[in-house]
Amino acid sequence: MILSSIFANSANANANGGSSVPVDVYNKVSKIMQTQSTAAPKLNAALSIDKTTLSALGQMQSALASFQKIAQSFSGVGFSASASSSAKEVLTATASDSALTGAYAIQVTQLAQNQVLRSANVPRADAPLGNEAAAKISFEFGSTTGNVFSANTAAKTVDIPSGAKTLQGIAAAVNGANIGVNAKVVPSGAGYALEFVSSGGGSMRIGVSNDLTLKDFMEYDPSGTKNLSQVSAAQNAQLTINGVTVESPSNSITGAVLGATLNLNATGSSKLEVTQGSGSLFQNVTNLVSAYNTLNAKLSALQQGDLKTDGTALQTQNQLARIFASAGNGATGISAQALAKIGISTQKNGDLVINTSKLQNAVSADPAGVGRLFSNGGSGIADNLAGKIQGMVGPSGSLPKKVAAINQDITTLNAKKSTLEAALTKQANALAKYYSQQQSAQTNPMWATSTAGGASSGNKSLFDALF
Questions:
Q1: Quick one: which of 52, 87, 142, 185 could link to 151 by a disulfide (CB 3.0–4.6 Å)?
Q2: Which of 369, 344, 368 is nearest to 290 (CA)?
Q3: Structural domain boundaries of the chain?
């Protein structure tokens, strides 16, 4: 709470026998201050709602992106090929129609890892950092060999308004810029720290301009000044496929096995089998339905929980559900009746249910026709699901825009909170001075006589202004 920390130093000084505000004066002013601002709890409540919503939207984006990868792996290429891993804890895979059938012995020796940099600790996540002017933070991405950094991209800058120079404000500004860095405030020691995670892989070089204090706090150059500590270094995934060495900056690998996408989960060995035929088609339809139901359950949980008053999760569910009611365009659209013919129906909660024997019969009778229901040059169900989600989570999608708006609101609220705290602190100190003078006057009548006129008129003006 804002008011709870205003007189913390005075209270500590008194507890330690120091010369500060007397305890009775401190208690009296504290009671008065608790009634002076209704804005403080409102600001805290608004910040709490924003942060809860932001966290929930992040979960929603992650769930949608995970499902989108599955839909994209089938979109535009059909469902007749599948890839099966003997050790799903090591890797999973999807295959397109262009995949070559066969078996592949895969040994994963190292997973790709993003670089994580962490700041020094500060007592509070909303504590002001640096000067009162606006600043810029620049991020460069590249590789580090020893202590030598080589940039692969031009610097990307993030503006930090003067009122947003807190751990929370900086994290919100960086995340809202969508430059390939995930910033988050984490508990650390007795306080909090700021972490930067390079979401695109590779190493980072971070610079700060227009604020020497902030520069000393978070500038990071692998070849020079390192004011951030490296929690984990960037590294590529390393594996062998049938004895051939493969290296990738991402744990999602395409091209190493023609027509297949490998998703690495852990180090270890696995045998990958790529097959084609009606059995693959049946399995891929089943996998897509299962993944959709997992996504629908997550959206339902968010709608009933942290996004209950927001409506974003419900709106997303409705948009995706309409694809199964009528996918595609014009006369070639896919209807619920077409899906029912192959054994797929929708429950009241939005989940999809498969009649196994009906789907197997449909696949055996017309595998090409069943495949086209899901992937048909942009008008199939998988095509439409992938496209619809891209409109939600893509760089210009509705969810990033909403996240950016909430981050900006958090920045604004933190600035208001800092301004209010400064004003309340000034007011509390003025009251403490007044009551301390009154207490001195009661214990020293000579002092009261010599100062009564000036003190009285000054304090009357003070109370007129404050109350």
A1: 142
A2: 344
A3: 3-35+417-466, 55-80+277-394, 116-232
